[in-house]
Write a structure and sequence with these properties.
The chain is globular. The chain is an all-alpha fold and 530 residues long. Helices cover 75% and strands 0% of the residues.
Length: 530
Amino acid sequence: MSSPKGFARFIIVLTTVTAAVMELIDTSIVNVGLSEMAGSLGVSIEDISWVITSYAIANVIIIPMTGFLAEYFGRKNYYLVSMVIFTAASYMCGQSTDLVELIIWRFIQGVGGGALLSTSQAILFDAFTPEERPMASGLFGMGLILGPTLGPTVGGYLIEHFSWPWMFLVNIPVGVIATFLAYTFIDKKEGEGKKKAGIKIDYIGIALLMLGIGTLQFVLERGEAEDWFASDVIKVNAVLAVIGVVGFIIYELRVANPVVNLRIMKHRTYAFTLVFTFVAGLGLFTSVFVYPVLAQRVLGFTAYETGLSLLPPTLAGVIMMPVIGKMMSKGISPIPFIVAGFILFAIYSWMSADVSPDVGRWAFFVPLLIRAFGISMSQLPLINQAVAGLQPKDYAAGISLNNMIRQIGGAFGIAMANNFISQRYAQHRSDMVASTYDGAPAMTERMNAITQSMIAKTGDASTATAKAYAMVSGAIDKQAYYLAYLDTFRLIGVFFIIVLPLVVFLRKKKTAVAAPIDAKAVKEAMEAAH
C-alpha cells in the first residue's frame, strides 16, 4: 500500500489529528463544569467527579490493547467503530438525567475514545514515508498539546453561554464528519481483519490488565476524595492494583502471544523513553489542572477567562511542532530537543511559583508561552523516541504502551497535586492562624478596621464582629491555597530537573545508527503500528 498524496493525505491528517484532539479535549473539558453538573443532577462535587474518573479508567485500560484489537478486527474497522461509539456515547452523556446513567455512558465514551489516540497516530504515520515520519510526529504532537489545553477553554465557553450537556453534544458533528472522512479516505491494509483464526486471544492478560490498570487509575483519581488509605475502598483497590499489575507483568512476559508486548522494555532507549514520557505526561496534565484551579479559586478568573489565557501561548507552541518535525526529518537528533524542553518546563514551573496574587490575566502569558515551547520541544521527540531502537515489528506495541504511560503520568500527577495541595494548604493555614491570634497587634488592628467598616455600611453593630472574623478566615483560606498552589508548581518543576541526567540512556548505540534501514520493512511495520 503506497502512501497517499495531495488532497487525500491532507484529509487523513485533518481526520486523525481532529480525532486525537477530540479525545484529549474530553479528558479535561468537564473539569470546569463540575459545579453546574452537580447542581443540575442534585449530587455532590465528590460524586460528580466520577464523571472524570470513569472516562480516565476506560481510557487507560483500552489504550494498551489498541494494537491487539486493531489487528483482530482490522484497523480501519476498529477505528470507525471506536468513532461511532465515542460519538454515540457523547450524545447519551448529554441526554443523561441522573449520575449513574452519566457515569456509565462516560465510561463507554472512554472506551471509544481510548482507541482514537494510538490508532490515529498509526494511520497518520502511514500517510508519510519513513523519511517524513518526524513531520507526521509534529502534526500529531500538535493534537497532544491542543487537546488538554482546549478542554478548559471550550468547556468554559459552553458553560458560560449554554449548559453542561453541550460539553458532550459538541462532539457529535465533529465525530460524524471524522467518521465519514475516515470511511472515505482511509484505506484498508491488505488482508486487514482477516487474521482472526490465527490470533489467539490473551484472555488472562486482558483480565489482569483491566484489574491492575483499572484499580490503579481508580486509586490515583479517587484517593484524595476518599482520604487515601484511611478508606477501606482505597485499601482494597490498592491491593487489587498491585496484584493485577504484578500479575500482568509476570504473565505477559511468559505468554507466547501477549495482549501487550512488554518484552520491548528490554530495549534501553525505549525503557528510559517511557520514564521521560511519564514525566512529560505528569507536567502536561498536572499544569492544565493546577493553573485553572489557581486562576479561578484565588485570582478570581472565570472558567472562560482561564481558558482564554491558556489559548494564545499554546497556539504559539503548536506552531513549533511542524518546525521541530522538519528539523528532525533532516537528521537532527531528538535528544537536545528533549533536554531543552524539560529545562523550559522547569523554568515555567518556577516562574509560575513566583506570581503575585493580584496579577492580571495576561501576566501569565510569558510563563505559559515557555510552557508551550517546553511541551513542543519534548513531546514530539519523545513520540519519535518511542520507536527508536525497536524492531519495526514492535512499533505497534511501542506506540500503545508509550501513550498509556503518558496518560498514567497525568493521572499520577493530578493525584499527587491534589494530595500535596491539601497538605500544604493545611500547613500554611496553620502557620497563618498561629500569627493571627486574638490580642496580636496586627490582628486587633485589622479586626477593628473591618468591624468599623461593617458598621458604617450596614449600621448593624451586633453582627459586625462575627462578619469581620468570617472575612479574616476567608482571607486566610485564600492565601493558604495560593501558597499551596505555588508550592505545587515548584514540585512539578523538580520532576523535570531530577529526570534530566537519565538523558544519557536515550542515546542509541553507534552500530544501530550505522545500520542500513530497510525502508520496506519499516513501512510494513508502521502500517501495523496501531
